[in-house]
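Q: How would the structure tokens look for this protein?
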Amino acid sequence: MRRKLIKQGSGQGTCYLAIPKRWITQQGLQSGQEVEIAPEGNKLLISAEKGLVEPKTATFTIPDNKEVTIRKLLVNAYYRAGYDKFMVSYDYGVQDLIKIVKDNLIGFEVFTNKPGRYRIESVAEPRYDDFEGITEKLFFLLLDVLDSLEDSTLLEKVSRVQRYDNFLKRCLTKRIYTPEESYFLWQFLSSLTRIARQCYHYHQTLKNEKQILTSQEKEQLQEIKRRITTIQKAYLRNDLNLIFQVHTIRQAELFQHLHKKIPPVSAYFMTSLARLAELATSPLSGIIALRTEKHEDSHGTRS
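A: Here is the predicted structure in token form.
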């Protein structure tokens, strides 16, 4: 079945497409009702809003009670992959399972079917179309992490960054963006989350060595925050020019510079954080380029 695009007005960017009447009737739709539209490469998927999608269910066994095993199975293999319900066989303490779900999955809870058999499903998951809102929260939380290096609350804040990262990548798996844009967004989110993880390791080092940040170290942290804030503005404004402000000095030169002002361990972590910020600008450049192209196409400004 083929349909012609119908031009609207004098602009070149906006066209309309007639939806077959038979499909509208089959779905019980009427004028004024909404449908879901999702881009998928060179395809555009249209689905009836009232048509509920069957939850995607995964059934699996967790072989041991190691935190890394449980987390990798739940988060990487199934949650990020877009599954909506997990039927889990787990012959260990359920409290470990509950904690890992709470620490890594937004809006999911554990229910006991019978001893050793559990159902994990969403009870208050955010809407997937709130991707940009959650991303903005992640930025503000990341800046808060940088302000909390000596604070006992840092671990929880880093865990929240990870939860946001997991949820946002789940959104990408649900195909709310084109595959090209999703690829860059996935890499971008990973870079931001690595910054939070590095802050956690820095915090642990300070704690273990019973060190407090000097005024020079705090000054350098403000420079790292400036870079993250610039990245945030570049993302929100789709401004490619802002990205160049993040690239100020090469990593080796930065380390040599910091080594003269602050202790070697802090110089290492500061250099690492600056480098991770720079790495985030690479996928961000791709995101901005794609969005700029999409904006120009929609307004008919490209020749």
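Residues 128-298 form a domain with the Methane Monooxygenase Hydroxylase; Chain G, domain 1 fold (CATH 1.20.58).

The chain has three domains: 6-48, 57-122, 128-298.

Upvote if useful.
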